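Below: protein 1.
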Amino acid sequence: MKIRRTHLICVAGIDGSGKTTLALGLVNRLRDMGYDVQYVHGDAHGIQFLPILKPIKTLAKIFFMRGTNQQSNYFHYRRVQVSISSRHRLLSGFYGGLCFLDYCAQAFVRVALPAMRGKTVVADRYIYDVLLNLALATARPLEAILHLSNIFFKLNIIPNAVFLVDTPEEIAFRRKSDIYSLDYLRERRSAYLEMARRFDFAVLDGQSDPDGLVSEAIARCFRTAIQPESS
């Protein structure tokens, strides 16, 4: 039994849920099994493919989000963000569209190309996480954003397995010292669970033993996403 050449496994979840631990565990386990695996984190560390995106983000912070601080007062930050996005629908839609196109290019280079070269890619965050963040950033309902996945998958790879590592926000908050608000986690956890229902993700318990989660994910991959490769 061999993983198909264009095999992609995605792991999603709130910060502190244990998704990175699972993703890296999958990478190590699959390598031990003899697969050529590449780990990709959804955060490109500030790299943008569209040159116009960075100055737009800077201008948006100066003109619209001045006086707010996501870390010190997340509730105030979100209230202002929702208010601005609601009053400037065209601008927020334009911004969201640019972010979406930028990620389409990133994903093609960082995920699709390695997979097409025969690697098994484990993505720690993928398009689903991007769509969730876009819905929040542009103050649009999640269902109004999810249709963009149809456009995304015309150019990029559909994952063979998606795992949502679900952990109560209070526990995730204690795990991560750089998370600044329970509201931040609570808002995103609710959206992730809604997305899991819509896309039929495999939901894993983030409070379980990490090695056990890796074994469960591997078993699910072999049951649903791995097929014999013709010799």
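Below: protein 2.
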Amino acid sequence: MTLPRALRNAALAVLLVLAAGEPALAGIVARIDQSSQRMRVYVDGMLAYDWPVSTARSGFVTPNGSYRVGLMAPMWRSRKYHGSPMPHAMFFRGGYAIHGTYAVGHLGRRASHGCIRLSPGNARTLFRLTQVFGGARILIRN
């Protein structure tokens, strides 16, 4: 996999900071636009990725606002929805998370119970970036 130049430069900066023994800065921002069903991921202020997502379908809500990633799990199983798999889950508000989905045909339109769904590969990429940078900020708007 070839990484975008901005991501390579950001990763190098993180490695240099870690080598110096200082804490890494949380330079990851994921902006979710519910009207376009897109997530744009910024690394140290530079656009690195632009992905389709699925947010809440009719009758459910994906909360707007600004959040920090909390609990992260490489594989989570939903307690509320019959053990449904949530690969590379990153929780940001209670039971709300960004996670991978195997229903990739629904990406780009509203389909979830409130979580933000990504393709499994994109969820893995965001998960790893968040680990490397020591956190991420999530911005959600309509």
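The first strand starts at residue 28 and ends at 33.
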